[in-house]
Amino acid sequence: MVSKSGKRTSDAGEQGGQTTHSAAENDAAAPPDPEATICLSEGEKQKMELVEAKKRTQLAQADLENYRKRMEREQQQERRYASMRLLRDLLPVLDNMQRAIEAAEQTEESASLLEGFKLVAQQLQTMLGQHNCESIVAVGEPFDPNLHEAVSQMPSEEYPAGTVMVETAVGYLLHDRVVRPSQVIVSTGSPQKE
Question: Which end of the chain has fewer beta carbons closer than 10 Å to its terminal beta carbon, N or C?
Fold first, then answer.
């Protein structure tokens, strides 16, 4: 509404000597809103939860790093001493070889030396078998580059072409993996007649 003096007044204007207050004045005079207080305490609560979550994360990361370092140390120890069992089994073979040499030095007979080394070789073969290390059968078998290493080729009446005819060094498998391939001479078949 516009008064006679040209001043604008509100509809709620001055009634009965009371004046209306602006919204800002009402907010200042009113008691604090309980929801605003709760929001502030929730914000602080969230900050505390965040700090605790960060601490838990840091502890978990530290535990994980310690675990990783411990596993690396254990793996290094296992790798370092992985051959211990094999060496323990090989040492008696070495002892027997030394005994065979000592026995051969005390006597003029070479037959006893030969017999001693045959026993040592048998013991070593048995021990390798106990560790799942088996010799590769080569002579008479078709040449397999996964199991055999050809050192030469020769004609042969006895063996067809591509067949192993002579084994120069025995190969070995550990389970299904080649420890050392057999070194072999492979037949080229019958010699060509001119």
Answer: C
The torsion defined by the Cα of 26, 27, 30 and 32, in degrees rounded to 10, comes to: 170
Domain 134-194 architecture = Roll (2.30)
| Rounded distance between C-alpha atoms, residue 151 and residue 157, angstroms | 19
Phi/psi for 46 (5° steps) reads -65, -40
Let me know: does 187 contact 163? Beta carbons within 8 Å.
Answer: yes
Nearest to 97 by CA among 137, 55, 127: 127
Token pair for 133: 């290390």
For residues 30 and 22, what is the distance between their CA atoms, to the nearest angstrom?
Answer: 12
Token code pair at residue 125: 């073969």
Q: Report the alpha-carbon distance of residue 92 to residue 89 in Å, rounded.
A: 6
Query: pLDDT band at 144, cuts 50/70/90?
Result: very high
Query: pLDDT tens-digit profile of 64-80?
Result: 999 999 999 999 888 77
Residue 182, token pair as written in the block: 């057999």
The structural domains of the chain, with segments of one domain joined by +, span 134-194
Distance separating alpha carbons of residues 178 and 183, to the nearest angstrom: 13
Residue 172 bridge partners (DSSP): 135, 180
Give CA separation, 111 vs 93, 115, 116, 187, in Å.
20, 6, 9, 35
Go through 153-167 and write b for each residue having 16 or more CB atoms within 10 A of its CB, e for each that does not: beebeebeeebbbbb
